[in-house]
Amino acid sequence: MAGLVLCGLLAGCTKKSAEVSEAKEVNLSIWGNYISPELQAQFEKETGIKINISNYSSNEELLAKVQMGSSGIDVAVPSDYMVEVMSKMNLLEALKPDQISNKTLIDPQFLKQNYDPENKFSLPYIWTTAGIAVNRDLYKGPIKSWKDLLENPQLKGKFALLDDVRETLGAALKMNGFSVNSTNPEEIKKAKDTLLKAKKNVKMFASDTIDILNNKEVAAAQTYSSDALQAADKSPGKIEYIIPEEGGTFAIDNLVIIKGAKHPEAAHKLINFLLSEQAEINRVKTILGGPVLKNTKASLTKEMQNNRALFPDEATLKKLERIQDQGEKNKLFEDSWTEIKTH
Fold first, then answer.
1. Is there a contact between 218 and 212 (Cβ–Cβ < 8 Å)?
2. Out of 1.10.645.10, 3.40.1170.60, 3.40.190.10, 3.40.710.10, which CATH number does the structure's domain 128-250+312-342 have?
3. Where along the chain is spermidine bound (predicted)?
4. Binding site, residues?
């Protein structure tokens, strides 16, 4: 009680108390299954800062939350193209490099990307691909292409697509021989028509696919490599991940601080922690996404280093595209997606 009375009498005490309070928590909005409970517990133990976690199923869902202006998010993990979108909309805080010493550990090939050339707003967290996962207990037929998923009568009512406008339209664009970044109205219409036809056979749209594959809710799913590999880890020998012969997408997910974040110091501490070598090794082993630090791959087991789902070969990588922000032409994708979801 005496401490409370004294605090009320001293000038500046309220401000200092608020700063201390701010440092005790940080709000992280992140993809599902993208940070292990062990890593969360380690950060909280080392710093005394509690991580409050919320999830989103697509970049567009994250953007909508932030645009509402009352999300309370401090740190988020948008994909490459969404970093550009959010920075253009003035929704991101500039990072303070002097508070992120582990930036020096990052492999230069993941820095200075076209969506943030000076890494003013973002630093890489993990990279993934998007393709097809199959539960071989439920479907033993061949799957080599997007057509084998989207136009396969044997999978009627037995497969899922990502609940993600750019990824799902991107798959249909690839199937039809086009770029995932096409802004040609005719090509996008063809992709839309492909998905409208496929929708009759789709069991669900879902962006978290681990459980639906393991629980045998679907026989196959369009999915991110990290989810497919986590599902395979839980069901050894049953889940196969395929990058279709037409290709797929490659994404770098990034750590950013949202404009007006209430806990900026804690946000920087979290980002620096997540870019430590110890944190990344845990992340790669548990999330099974691609590492962004220089020395991580060499620290993994030979089995993991040789896993082609985790580390695709050069020929496969050449077939992958990174989704790009299309500015005003994003509306072509958004309008098509609305029609697909509401038809």
1. yes
2. 3.40.190.10
3. 81, 164-167
4. 81, 164-167
